[in-house]
Every structure is written in C-alpha cells, then in structure tokens.
Give the backbone structure.
Amino acid sequence: MEQELADLAAKVAALEEGGGWTTTINLEVFYWWCTALMFIIHAGFLGYEMGASRKKNVLASGIKNILAFAFMIPTFFFFGWWIYLAFPSGLIPDFEAGAGGIPWSDAMGPNLGDNATGIFWAAFALFAATTASIFSGAVIERIKLSGFIILAILLGSVVWILAASWAWHGGGWLLTEFGWHDFGAAGCVHMVAGFFALGVLINLGPRLGKYRPDGTPVDIVPHNVPMAVFGLMILIVGFFGFLGGCIIYIGTDQWVSIFGNPTTLSAVAFNTLMCFAGGIIGAWIITRDPFWMMSGALAGIFAAASGLDVYWPPLAFLLGIGGGVIAPLSFRFLEKLGIDDAVGAVSVHGVAGLFGVLAFGILGAGYPNGDYPDTNFLGQLIGAVTMIATGFIPGYVGSLILKSVGLLRIPAAVELKGMDPVKVPLLAYPEGMDSNGIGITAPAE
C-alpha cells in the first residue's frame, strides 16, 4: 500500500505542477465521502444491536457499540496504521517501511504536501471500527464493558490490520506469493471479525436461558425487530462507502483495485446491487424471516465481495443467493453446538465471507492481479486459512485471559436483572412506558 500512496503522491505533485489542482481535490473528496458513508455503517450497527437486545439491555448494547468506535480511532492512529505499513512480509516488522505510520511522522498530520495519507488512514480506521462492530453484535447482553473494549481494540487496531497488511497491502505476502484476490475484504475484514467473535463466544458462553436443561436452544426474541431490520438496511447503505474505499482512485488514469487490476465503480455498482438482492431472496427462501432477509442481504454481499470488481452481474446474484442460504443454516448449526451468537455475526460475516473467498478461487481462477501471480484456488485457500487463524486464535486466547482474571462476563445476577438497570443512568423507554407502549409502574427509589 505504501507504494500506491507514493505513486499517488507523485501523481498529485505532477498534477499540481501542471495546473491539475481540481483533480487533486476530486481525489481527496472521493475518499472523504467514502469515509463519511462508512460512518453510516455504525449508525446501522447501533440500531441493529439495540433492536436485537432485550429491553433490559438496550442502552448497554448501544454504549458498548459507541465506545468501541471511540476507542478504535485513537488506537488506530497511535499504532494501527504503523502495523499496516510495517508487517506486509509476515510477523517481523519492517521498521523503515513503517516509519510513515508512527504518530510523529510528517505524514500523520496537517502536511500540506501530502494529499493522500490522511484520507487513506481515515478509510482504514473506519474499516477497523467495522470489525469491532461486527464482533460487538455477537456478544451482546453478557459481556463486561471493560473486557469488550480490550477485545475490540485487539481486533480493530491490531488483528484486522495485521491481516490487511498481508492481504491488502501492495507488498503483502498473500498477494505477492500466492496471488490472493479479495476486492471487498471478505477475508481480512469479515472473516477475521467473524472468527474472532467465534473464539470469544466459546469462552464467553451462552446467555442465561438460551438453552434448556436438555441442551435444546431457545430463541431469545429481540425487543424491537423493526429497529433491528431498519438498522441492517442502514448498515447496507454504509457499505457503498466501504466498497468505494476498496478502489484506488488516482484522478485521471484507469481506476484499479487494491490488487492492481483495472476496474470501475460501474462494475462494483452492478455487482453489489445484484448480490444484495440475491442475499435477500436466498434468506427468504430458507426462513421467511425479515431479520434474516436483511442479514442475508449482508451475507450475499460478502459471498460475492472477493470478486465485485470483476464478476458478471448474474454470477454475483447467484453467489448472493448462496450467501443468503448459507448464513441462517450456519447460524442454526452453530447454535446446536452451543454457540450463542446473538445476531448471527459468525455466520453472516465469517462463514459467508469464507464462501466468497473460496468461490473466487474457483470462479476467478487465472484472473490477473496486475504484476502479481494470477488468482488461483490454492492461493485463496491459503488466504482463507490465514484469515480464520488470524481471527480465531487472538479472539480465543484474548478472551480466555480476560475470563481467567474476571473481566469477560458480567455476574449472573446482573445478567438476570439486566445491564441497563444496573449500569446505565437512563431509561430507554421513559414516561412509564415499556417497549410495547404499555404502561408500567416505575421502580421504587
């Protein structure tokens, strides 16, 4: 990636010398608005998770999501961006390459000669926050806020950006050695976050009341399904900014993917809408459930994400259907294994992302990655295994350590009463009304 930024800065300098300042501004504005749209992802996650919570945990779920975002930005500034620049070759840092990502670098501030670093940093910081929000939904209603924040920082400002350095960086070993191709980050964002969540859920355990004594799972009904479904739709709006940030815009020449192959926003528009629609249809066929229909829309996007830059739109539609079918089936399978994923994040992001990565290894085999090895199934498989391990191992080990020191799960008494009455100095539904508009008696002082 630093090579792309260097090339970009050189082009900007040439444009300025030749009177092309308007093009430079357009470049900055493009990523500026991609980043702004990505904020909408987090508005969607907020509504989605608060709606999926029970009434007694609504505000606690919202606070958790808001704080994850707030902690992600500074930590990504202080060390996340450095990790991206310094680790493309593996687990040994390249300190020279990472120098531009240290907080006191000239590039990490208002340098009037640098029209690229800040907007790319902002986009990647929002990608990081997305991973934390993916994880956030899976663990609602029973995780301690302190433990959650620690895990969110670990995921967003360390784990995902390490995976991105290997998978998205112009010198990343998965690309340069194996021809990895994953335009829409089904691997380094969605798989990593989904399997990180799985590692945490194993140690966190299910919500009280989720399983009967015989092990049969019980559906814990969200307190506000319309809010959750609307949040999912808003989240998808934000993904147009997310996917726009996955393309390299250089002002005058042909746009390229982060892997160097030529593409256009037109291709991404065709395919995103087609797989989005396919995901809804696939989940509708399996469940008839509006919550899963909109979750299926997300799964459909992730199922086609690796090849959104090159797929023929009807193929993206079929992959979207596949994602919409796979996600709810995977959710029920994991539920039977004792994994209480409150919103299906592991299935929607992790499993559908895995499906998409491997699908491109078959359907996109032989596609050229610029100056790097052509796409191939083995490369996609190696990348997929890497993404699973990079997410799952830190999630499992990190949560196990927190569990051992009592920082992972809230006490059972708090869980039964609800986190809002115990932890939040505000009523979600004031004026004596519950979430259904039914009058209730205020608690005694």
Notes: Strands lie at 247-248, 256-257. Residues 15-21, 435-445 have pLDDT under 50 and may be disordered. The first helix runs from residue 2 to 17. The chain has one domain: 2-104+114-423.
